[in-house]
Design brief:
The chain has 256 residues and is α+β, with helices and mostly antiparallel strands. The chain has 4 helices and 15 strands. The radius of gyration is 22 Å and the shape is globular.
């Protein structure tokens, strides 16, 4: 009898403790949306879902060299098809990169055949190919809500994103999304060995094509804080991009 009563008290205490943990950590099941919906909402804020064009300048700084500035024009349709045109510096003008699904190729004016590259390979500074070509997280990661965190008086969903396969840009990502408006706030990128190697902050939210979007991303080396790349987005506009734009044959004609 005493054992039964003790078990009941232990169970009640455990339930109370769990309830307190859930409430104190703001992880209330009744008002937390599905993690996939959170990621999708943040993706829609970052970029239009329809075809669009945007110009991106990337400024990379280190402690021992002058700032390196590179410029690109990106044509994108959904999260599956992207063309990246290098517009500066002049020496690299004419280089074109194409992504279809998770296949990524580089077209060089001096090389007859396209070169296949991984999305995870560095493009410039702290920026990988996939950061420009496949910037949205939906479809590439399995999201799980880790916690809700308060930063400077605002609450953020903290999501753990696990890569669906090895073809995506990063194996694992921690992603902070504003609980109130779903604005992306910060991302941490991890290696296969679970080591933090890069962080990204979403800044300078401005109206572009019907949505208030982050127009600046700051990517910082986690081990060398003085090494960073700043991506500035400008002149975004919606475009009706036919599927033929995202083909090797079409890009060969562009180079001619």
């Amino acid at each position: 009898m005493q054992t039964s009563i003790a078990r009941r008290f232990a169970f009640a205490a455990a339930v109370t403790l769990l309830s307190n943990i859930i409430l104190s950590g703001s992880l209330r099941a009744d008002d937390v949306p599905d993690p996939a919906e959170i990621v999708a909402a943040a993706d829609r804020i970052r970029f239009p879902q329809e075809g669009f064009q945007v110009d991106i300048s990337i400024t990379t700084t280190t402690s021992d060299s002058e700032p390196d500035v590179r410029e690109y024009r990106v044509l994108s349709k959904g999260n599956e098809n992207t063309v990246i045109l290098t517009t500066a510096p002049a020496a690299d003008r004419g280089q074109i990169m194409l992504m279809r699904g998770r296949d990524f190729w580089a077209f060089m004016p001096s090389v007859s055949q396209p070169i296949r590259l991984p999305l995870s390979q560095k493009l410039t500074g702290q920026v990988a190919n996939g950061d420009l070509a496949r910037a949205n997280f939906t479809g590439d990661y399995n999201p799980k809500l880790s916690r809700i965190e308060e930063i400077n008086g605002r609450e953020y969903y903290v999501l753990e994103l696990s890569a669906v396969d090895r073809g995506v840009t990063y194996p694992r990502v921690l992603y902070w999304v504003d609980k109130k408006n779903y604005n992306p706030y910060k991302a941490e990128f991890y290696t296969l060995s679970n080591r933090l190697f890069k962080t990204c902050r979403f800044q300078k939210f401005e109206s572009m094509e019907g949505e208030v979007r982050p127009t600046q991303l700051v990517m910082e080396n986690a081990l060398k804080k003085d090494e960073r790349s700043i991506l500035d987005y400008r002149k975004m506009k919606l475009r009706d991009l036919p599927d033929k734009v995202f083909t090797k044959d079409y890009l060969k004609k562009v180079q001619e």
